[in-house]
Amino acid sequence: MKAVVLRGAGGVWRARDGSGAEHDVSLRGRLKHGESLKLVVGDEVELERDARDGTWAIADILPRRSRLARRAPGGAYGERVVAANVDQVVVVFAAAHPTPNARMLDRFLVIAAANDVPARIVINKADLAPDGARAIFASYADAGYPVHGTSVPQRAGLDALHDVLHGRVSALTGPSGVGKSSLLNAMYPGLSLRVGEISRSVDKGRHTTVAATMHPLPDGGYVMDTPGLREVGVWNVAPRDLDRCFPEFRRFVAECRFRDCRHHDEPGCAVRSAVESGAVTSQRYDSYRRLRTELETTTR
Fold first, then answer.
1. pLDDT at position 290, please?
2. What domains does the chain contain, in order, with CATH numbers?
3. Alpha-carbon distance 152 to 182, whole Å?
4. How far is CA 161 from CA 147, 157, 187, 290, in A?
């Protein structure tokens, strides 16, 4: 029987089959100790039932159509796969309370781009937005990102956001306090998430093996909480390829004098010229420079 992994802790996983029934399952020994993929939330699996006691076990992990990975935490080298089979990354920030952090947003977007997963931005608490916050987010729309403004008290933007979540596996991420749980409860009253629930990580116990949990949506699709992205270390992108993770850079990169241009101080850099002309914002360029320096340091 096929199923999708919703969450896991202490070696026990929760999987949902095609009928909507959920089962507590374990991993077959060969999957624990063999060379197969390490199981993560969002994986599609084959379940087998023990004829003696009726318990279910994961017999196989099916091929992934996508994955979401970031740098291993704690300064370790390598990657950690946070989730599998993600259709889109939805980054939620508040227009105010808390104040949006553009550099953190850029990191989330680069991680999505490095994993070839489309990203969209949700500006929640739009009713509180000062002009400064609107200006920050306007640059992302100009760069080509879909941007949604939402307000739970005013029920603004909820229908449009509901439509883009429908039938998809969406990795929901962003800082604490931006209203992710409140947003989902407003769109899906039957979900009944506790406020703050989307901000909690299940990656706390010694034996916990995942850092994400997936919520089935009442009318189709899943929303996946990805607290594993909060230590937002970029992985799976070489320093020379970082510019492709900034969509507004792409049309200028081809015009740089040197093919290996770092967009730092090289003569004839079209990206720097675009910053000077205002076609690329200085804030996004500064984020690129900082991330490039970080990648050059960590990938040596």
1. 93
2. 2-61 (2.40.50.140), 67-229 (3.40.50.300), 239-298 (1.10.40.50)
3. 7
4. 10, 6, 9, 32
Give the span between the Cα atoms of 267 and 258, in whole angstroms.
8
What is d(CA 166, CA 216) in angstroms, rounded to the nearest whole number?
A: 11
Residue 295, token pair as written in the block: 């990648």
Structure-token match 């039957």, residue found: 190
| pTM summary value | 0.87
* Sequence-separated (6 or more) residues with CB below 8 Å from residue 19: none
Strand, coil or helix: 249: helix
**Which amino acid type is present at position 73?**
P
Can you give the pLDDT at residue 210? Answer: 37
Tokens matching residue 132: 């400064």
In angstroms, the CA 99 to CA 97 distance is: 5
Helix axes 131-143, 102-114, angle to 10 degrees: 20
Tokens of 104: 């953190």
* 232 contacts 111 by C-beta, under 8 angstroms: yes
Question: Which pLDDT score, from 0 to 100, does residue 285 have?
Answer: 97
The pair of three-digit structure tokens given for residue 144, joined into one six-digit string: 């080509």
Distances from the Cα of 163 to the Cαs of 49, 61, 118, 148, in angstroms? 37, 30, 16, 12
pLDDT band at 35 (very low <50, low <70, confident <90, very high): low
The one-letter code for the residue type at 203 is D
